[in-house]
Amino acid sequence: MERIQILHNPRCSKSRQTLQLLEDKGYSVEVTEYLKTPLNQAQLAELYTQLGLDTVLDMMRPKEAEFKQAGLDKTTITKEQAFAAIVDYPKLLERPVVIFNNQARIGRPPEAVLEIL
């Protein structure tokens, strides 16, 4: 069986709820604490593709102070700028993200991740 991976922040309630949901359904989950083990630009580019989002902003947390610190503008941000900022400030990655079978979903709400399992 393909592995299920969660990009997890244990301090985030949605992240904890999503992990609990997967475990309650009997899934074996590989937990990656992305703040401790940040993704690189190539991994972020792959994740963006797996998420199938309309815009790179959909995988980011633009309300975080780090968004402004990184000098980003919501109206003009490019994928390259976004990925570079997330590498520098992993906190900017929207969480949690569940990856399975070359697809990914953001767990907001937590049940959203079930559509790829």
Quick overview of this protein structure:
This protein has helices at residues 13-24, 41-51, 65-69, 79-88, and strands at residues 4-8, 29-33, 97-100, 103-106. It is an alpha+beta fold. The protein has 2 domains: 1-34 and 95-117, no CATH class; 40-93, no CATH class.
Number of domains: 2
Query: What is the tally of beta strands?
Result: 4
- Please state the CA-atom Rg, rounded to the nearest Å: 14 Å
- Helix count equals 4
Largest sheet: 4 strands, mixed
Mean pLDDT equals 96
- So what's the oligomer here? single chain
Unreliable stretches (pLDDT < 50, length at least 5) are none
Q: State the helicity in percent bands.
A: 25-40%
What general outline do the C-alpha atoms trace?
Answer: globular
Percent strand: 15-25%
Strand order of the largest sheet: 2-1-3-4
- The N- and C-terminal alpha carbons lie at a distance of 11 Å
Q: H/E order of the elements? A: EHEHHHEE
Structural class of the helix and strand makeup? alpha+beta
Structure commentary:
- The protein is α+β, with helices and mostly antiparallel strands.
- The protein has 2 domains: 1-34 and 95-117, no CATH class; 40-93, no CATH class.
- It is built from 4 helices and 4 strands; from the N terminus they run βαβαααββ.
- Helix 1 links the parallel strand 1 (4-8) and strand 2 (29-33).
- The chain is globular, with a radius of gyration of 14 Å.
- It starts with a strand and ends in an 11-residue tail after the last strand.
